[in-house]
Amino acid sequence: MIDGMPGTVAAAQATPGYQWHLVTEEADFAARDGAGALTFQGRMWLLGGWNPGDKRHFPRICNSEVWSSTDGAAWKLEVRQAPWEGRHTAGYVVHRNRMWIVGGDCIGGHYQNDVWNSADGITWERACDNVPWGPRVLHYTVAFADRIWVMGGQTLPQFAPAPLRYYNDVWCSADGAHWERVCEHAPWAPRGMIGHSAVFQNRIWLLGGGTYDTSERPERTFFNDVWSSADGVQWQCHREHAPWHPRQYHDVAVWDGRLWVLEGWNQQNRNDVWYSTDGENWQELPHTPWAPRHAASPFVYADALWIVAGNNMRPDVWKLTRRR
Known about the structure:
The chain is an all-beta fold. The chain has strands at residues 18-24, 36-40, 43-50, 62-69, 76-79, 91-95, 98-102, 115-118, 125-128, 140-144, 147-151, 170-173, 180-183, 194-196, 199-200, 203-211, 221-229, 235-239, 250-255, 258-265, 269-276, 282-285, 297-301, 304-308, 317-322. It has a 5-stranded mixed sheet with strand order 14-19-20-21-22, with no helix packed on it. The radius of gyration is 18 Å and the shape is globular.
């Protein structure tokens, strides 16, 4: 059993082949969801995030803090207020030895159509202030084949003025400033709300996701299909319905030679964890010890899969390792 103390491990029967470790229940940063999570230069980096209930750390609902850690237990505030506007659920990738923030949200009443990068996490440069694929939010962003890729997403007129659009197009860029649309309508249904990214077996993988409700379409959509592509143009459907529940605001990752789908939301927060070696056959890792959540911050770091914070609104840190 988890006894609530850092360093404890889930019961042996709970996670065959793997084990969860509670690193800390109270990290140095304030609770948040939708924060960027990047592994870069031997550290984990946590970027921005959302918490409207915490006016001290999030006076504008989102902040632009930059934190880093080498062990998940101790976190250093590298930048209290970066030059990019506070945001969450943006695109976050490592590309050409730099960390990138691609787009943002619209809860401030406007769309954040900018792109930023940094070689050290402290000094940030704006590569583009008005991307050609804007306005959109909740897009899926991946670094693949020496390009940054943006796909899917939508507008949210109830938060910021724009025609209502749901996207299933695919764009790419080598420098974050010049963008090319390589596919106008992919075969998968328009969607977004897929956290982090998955590149596996030299392909981009798109796993589940959904659309946010608007006044014109008051019902959200939720998907559990599995797609992949080697070029962003031609897509292969591996499963129309994977065994994991349809969801949005979940996180995806690649670790230990497997695709991973973790947590998410569908009428309620979830904490189930699934993995696959081929995108078609999936196995659940049972008895997850951490609280249900969505929009967490996942890291692949130090031969472990990490899950940090999220909509459980606790600054907790967990990591998954192979059972020795």
